[in-house]
Amino acid sequence: MVQDDDSFFREVNEELRSDQVRFVWKRYGKILIGLAALIVIGTAGYRGYEYWDQHNASQSGDRFTAALQLASENKNDEALAALSAIEKDGTGSYPVLARLRASSVQANKGDVAGAVKGLTEVGNDGKAPAAIRDLAKLRAAWLLIDTGPYEQVSALAEGMTAPGQMLANSAREALGLSAFKAGNMAQAKQWFKQIADDSTAPRNVANRAQIMLDNIAASGKAP
User: By the 8 A CB rule, do 216 and 188 touch?
Assistant: First the structure.
């Protein structure tokens, strides 16, 4: 008798579940089908975008490599044209990299002012990665050592001289050389001493700093 009761209750529960499923499907079937379709379309769309993005990035990379090859062959005008095109319609990080490399090509052509302008624009571009911005500013600062006043070099490089900054010692060296060129030996000594006292400074940079400190000491123009 108990077994018959158990069997009866199981059948009733199964019927109830079936009725619930039919009710849910009848009421929400179209919505469920729509959601399923959206999931499928969304997944396909994402995969399509992923393929499109990778394909475009690959094309931009190939174009950038070709532009670098032109620059290495001293075909500066052709390289600048190729880099300019990447700036306009390249994908990913390639437009900003193209701007950065174009400035170096301009410097090689003797257009230092144009190169500094382009590098400064990259350095002030909030959309560019911080590391790229710092690299652009530092490159502009080094170009200005021979062509600009200390104040201009300082405006670009001094923000990178704090301990722990990745480019700190390169920035200090640029500032030291600019101060030395301007005849400000005390200021130059300060920057080169920071390099010499920094245990993390690359050996070649530290060696150059020590040579400059020796030259400053020999000049007798700095306490």
Answer: yes
182 burial type by CB count under 10 A (0-12 exposed, 13-18 middle, 19+ buried): middle
Residue 221 CB-density burial (10 A; 0-12 exposed, 13-18 middle, 19+ buried)? middle
Residues contacting residue 183 through CB under 8 Å, at least 6 positions apart: 221
- pLDDT digits 0-9 by tens, 125-183: 888 888 889 999 999 999 999 999 999 999 999 999 999 899 999 999 999 999 999 99
| Cβ(141)–Cβ(156) below 8 Å | yes
Domain layout of the chain by residue ranges: 1-110
Q: CA-to-CA distance for 103 and 120, rounded, in angstroms?
A: 10
Predicted TM-score (pTM) of the model is: 0.69
Q: Give the residue among 151, 132, 130 at the shortest CA–CA distance from 141.
A: 151
